[in-house]
Write the structure tokens for this entry.
Amino acid sequence: MNKIAVITAVVGLKELSLYTPTYKNADYFIFSDLDLPKHDAWNVRKLYPAFIDKEYENRRTGKIPKIIPHYLLPDYEYFIWHDYTHYVSLDPQTIVNTYLKDHDFAFFKHPQRNCWYEELTTVRMDNLDNKDILDQQKQFYEKTGVKKKQDFYECTCFVRRNNEVANKVCSLWYDHVSKFSSRDQLSLPAAIQAYNPRVNVMEGTCQMYYGNNKIIPQYRHSLRLQKLVK
């Protein structure tokens, strides 16, 4: 077994094509509600959508392996997460050594917004989540003092350690995602503020229309689920 796990997830699609990993010094895991056949390069794990929030049930299901892999794959030292629209373009060990270094997390900085408040306002205005849940989250964050001005990251791809502080951050992060909006980058700042992990910023962005990156680039566009499922 390698010490690095590369993880992605797909929920709600009828079919899926996976890229073939180039590097062998990581183990690759795909979590999905599909009955995927055994794959030579990917370890297949089953997901079971079962959430009260039926409108965003698929999105919420995918957060399980994304945010709390330390419960699912506890024997790995490092986790590299990417959405299914992306791929690992560098040697995973190089990614860990170069971009994670001695930090607990490595994220890409958000190219447009600077804080959770701006993100929540945009998500609400664009009808990307339940407005009542967003309003509850806003009120809770303002009441509990989650800073509006702090570093704000994309969560499409990131690298993290399997250590105590990172696991506490991600466990709290998942609790916020379960209670509030399923838009996980909205709640990450609250979890980071609570435990103050060491965070490194990787160059570039997660989305190709903002310039992409050379580490875990996007190679196909995501579409809304209703456009993909007939």
Notes: The domain at 4-228 is CATH 3.90.550 (Spore Coat Polysaccharide Biosynthesis Protein SpsA; Chain A).
